[in-house]
Amino acid sequence: MAKDVIIACDFSSSEETLAFLDKMGDRKPFVKIGMELFYAAGPEMVRQIVARGHKVFLDLKLHDIPNTVKKAMANLGGLGVYMCNVHAAGGVKMMAAAKEGLLAGAEKAGSEPPMLIAVTQLTSTDDDMLKNELLIGASMNDTILKYAENAAEAGLDGVVCSPLEAGMISDHFDKLGKEFMTVTPGIRFAGGSVDDQKRITTPRQARERGSDYIVVGRPITAAADPVAAYDKCVNDFLTDNEEM
Ligand code: C5P
Questions:
Q1: Which end of the chain is less congested by CB atoms within 10 angstroms, N or C?
Q2: Ligand 1 atom 5: the closest Cα is on which residue?
Q3: Of 68, 21, 18, 26, residue with least CA distance to 44
């Protein structure tokens, strides 16, 4: 399975985003467009970034009734993005409807069908919040594994989870002889600012735990030298040598 570093472009305008991507020079990093940028700059921004040669993960985390999600996904399926997502908490029917909509939208636009993955539990959720705020009685790992099984049952390609759970998920699906990818935010350099993330690892640890894709935002976008920070992520995640 392909492995790569995805930069979370959490900016609030197209100008800021394009200025950031210009700094990357000849590099064409895989980028993630989330709610902040999409709600500010819309589908046109997505088309523009795709046209500049970037693979795009459109991280809009859809979660609604199946019919609404299916129709929304049909609109996203024609944008030429590489990957989209939904919340697994929406259930198997909602995820299956999302996939159906996405495939229909891609077919109508004549574009490659995007991968579809599901968010299990946000990396900003910890055990205490799961139990005492969301009133979920099962453990974090059991919840995540069950949500991943539901996503697979609905025909999705993988899940978003913390790198701490990536090994457990890939082992589970390896045993079933099934390809199922893990996309993992919650990445921080050793000694770097943790911000609002709770279940975190370094790029190196994510590699060791078997993540297929790491999603890295502020450690790159807020770095004094974002290009160097990106290169370090790529080096630490994709090669055997960790840069100190
Ligand atoms: O800046 P930072 O590296 O924390 O950015 C992580 C990105 O990954 C954000 O865009 C956030 O929305 C996203 N994300 C996450 N946890 C999830 C799913 C997505 O942090 N479970």
A1: C
A2: 217
A3: 18
Q: Which fold has domain 4-238?
A: TIM Barrel (3.20.20)
Domain ranges (residues) in the chain: 4-238
Q: Which helix (H) or strand (E) element contains residue 1?
A: none
> How far apart are the C-alpha atoms of 56 and 47, rounded to whole Å?
10
**Bridge-partner residues for 4, per DSSP?**
213
Pocket of ligand 1 contains residue 217 by CB under 6 Å: yes
Ligand 1 binding pocket includes 29 (Cβ within 6 Å): no
Q: Ligand 1 centre and the CA of 110: distance in Å?
A: 30
Report how far residue 177's alpha carbon sits from residue 199's, in angstroms, rounded to the nearest whole number: 28
Active site residues: 61
- Predicted confidence (pLDDT) per residue in 137-181, tens digit: 999 999 999 999 999 999 999 999 999 999 999 999 999 999 999
Show the DSSP H helices in the chain as ranges: 14-23, 35-51, 66-76, 92-109, 127-132, 140-153, 163-175, 203-208, 218-221, 226-238
